[in-house]
Design brief:
Elements (H helix, E strand, L loop, with lengths): L1 H8 L1 E4 L3 E4 L6 H5 L6 H4 L1 H14 L6 E5 L1 H10 L7 H9 L1 H25 L3 E5 L8 H22 L5 E4 L7 H8 L3 E4 L5 H11 L2 E4 L7
Parallel strand pairs: 3-4, 4-5, 5-6, 6-7
Antiparallel strand pairs: 1-2
Helix pairs in contact: 5-6, 5-7, 6-7, 7-8, 8-9
């Protein structure tokens, strides 16, 4: 959530509560107040951390960069906190779709540039994580998540920075083929709802690598 924070939503993380954003985005006026973010400058502390970590790893293992995907970040920005119902975010998709699309477009551009900046700072792989993909029905996912996931991914590819891109949308395993097509990802993350056999068939057909499948509770 460093991107919403840099855009002016004032992130705090409360013990036993989780992240909170002080100024949720629920109208055109709220959109107008968002700041444009230049990751290398406005998120310089992230890049500094990557450089330090890369130096201390000293080639022992690769360093993976990370960003929340546009729908996931936008949902946090609309809700103002974590949620189990996504009521505010889904209401906005239905009642003010233009606001939703404008927010998603701005977030997608920033996410893409943020990943490029991480690679330039030393990340050797980057991952787009659509944590809340499972909150959307298929038509909603295709309308409000997939195009912006694809846009963020295209910014990374078009930058020519060379690091492999992982895309992971837990709970949206039904859309793996569409995600692969839209994003051009080098690696697809899969959750435990997708069998390794099905993922392997997709990976072979698409010429991509796969990552995951383990239920975190097993750890």
């Amino acid at each position: 959530l460093v991107i919403p924070d840099a855009m002016g939503l004032e992130l705090t993380v409360e013990e036993r509560v989780g992240p909170r954003l002080a100024h949720p985005v629920r109208s055109h006026d709220d959109l107008a107040r968002l700041r444009d973010v230049h990751p290398a400058r406005d998120l310089a502390y992230v890049m500094d951390a990557i450089r330090l970590t890369r130096a201390r790893l000293d080639g022992r293992v690769p360093l993976i960069g990370f960003a929340g995907a546009p729908w996931t970040l936008a949902a946090y920005m609309i809700e103002g906190s974590g949620t189990k119902t996504f009521a505010a975010a889904k209401r906005l998709l239905v009642t003010q779709p233009r606001v939703a699309h404008e927010l998603l477009a701005r977030v997608a551009e920033t996410v893409g540039r943020h990943l490029v900046a991480q690679i330039e700072a030393g990340a050797q792989v980057v991952q787009l994580f659509e944590s809340w993909g499972s909150a959307l029905a298929p038509d909603e996912f295709r309308t409000f998540a997939l195009p912006y996931l694809a846009r963020a991914a295209s910014i990374v590819r078009e930058a020519g920075v060379g690091a492999p891109l992982v895309v992971f949308a837990p709970g949206a395993g039904w859309a793996l083929d569409e995600i692969a097509e839209a994003t051009g990802a080098d690696v697809l993350g899969i959750d435990w709802h997708t069998t390794p056999e099905a993922a392997r068939q997709l990976a072979d057909r698409r010429g991509v690598a796969i990552q995951g499948n383990l239920d975190p509770c097993a750890l």
